[in-house]
Amino acid sequence: MSFTHDTALPASTGRRFRAYTSKHLDELTARAGLGDDERLAVRAVATVLPFRVNTYVVDELIDWDAAPNDPIYRLTFPQADMLPAGDVARIADLLRSDAPRKELNLVANQVRAGLNPHPAGQMDLNVPKAGDEEPIPGVQHKYAETVLFFPKQGQTCHAYCTYCFRWAQFVGEPDLKFASSDIDQLVSYLRQHPEVSSVLFTGGDPMIMGGSVLARYIEPLLEIETLESVRIGTKSLAYWPQRFVTDPDADETLRLFEKVVAAGKNLAFMAHFSHPNEMAPPLVHEAVRRIRGTGAVIRTQAPLIRTINDDPAVWADMWRTHVRHGMIPYYMFVERDTGPQDYFAVPLAEAYEIFRAAYNSVSGLARTVRGPSMSATPGKVCVDGITEVNGEKVFVLHFIQARDPELVGRPFFAKYDEKAAWLFDLEPALGATRLPYEEAFTADASGLVRAALP
Fold first, then answer.
1. What Gene3D superfamilies does the record point to (predicted)?
2. Residue 168's Cα: distance from chain center in Å?
3. Quick one: which of 236, 238, 295, 383 has the fewest CB in 10 Å?
4. Residue 13: its pLDDT value, please?
């Protein structure tokens, strides 16, 4: 199967990429019908959290007649109530008085510090497993068989999602970033750790890189016999499908994908789709077809986000569309405990009911999806159900993946709590004093949670 194909596409799809940033916010939010005070509040939020969108999202995905309630608008534009009202008012006052940038940054950094910029011990994970002499920047070894790599040139995106748990990578603060441009260090690490069978390129978005730069990172990995798969986590299919169709290096990139497959590796294209509207333009369908034509496998995933996709009909529609175009539904995630989590989070009990209702209404081909799943410090925890055991109402959960492999696949129970929105909100049930991961993990002096394993 080849990725090449003659498809008639609108001339506008071949235009060059153009990004809009916070300096364009006032103009764009006015287009959404916001008043002066509302626009100022949005600018205040964008002083703390990153904002970036592009011409494709603005012109092709957002229904401006429905803004600011359009789901893609809410997916990409800051909302005035995403942060505490006091913080927003304080920054708005500074903006209104044209305060110096240094003063604005100081206040913004104070607010960011309270938003848990690195959930699940992300910075701690930059330290590879015990026994390695030096940490490797931009490399995370979270699970025995999986290494995450953050290429330096991939630490931005075609557009930023308002819910993004990696928001700290995009705010311009060096202390909050982790990335590497040294692929040789990663190759050396993988040769020392043959248990690693999969490398995930993430960020940011690796597909922001040009084809030749991406090849410099990926091609050296193809010589590692113990490596079975290369994964690429990306939002590019939704936010800039031109990357695979009309961009100058689209064909070069797809030839690289073919090279990975020809080397006997599984190329897993981990596509982030948060709403069915992102699949509407024909350009996306052509991009999907071309990627699949290289032999790559496209798996789809997204978090459950209040006010954007907290509706089982939305998820069922999305999964059916993905299956129809040959993609594999993979994960429904729970919004992580970072950034504006209080604004976007859906309680676990409600999340489970949304997942169950959507799952019930699709065919078995779409039931490859797993969720609702929390990517927490000890691993990925799935909410399997709500039931009653010995007269006590409980959540039934299990680890899909875990830093302690002994936890994987073992069901456990937690007290039912209709307000709980994250793993660490849960308490042991049925007379237990600790949840299973608390028996395998312990807090060190820094307060970070590490595996208490030999």
1. Aldolase class I
2. 13
3. 295
4. 60
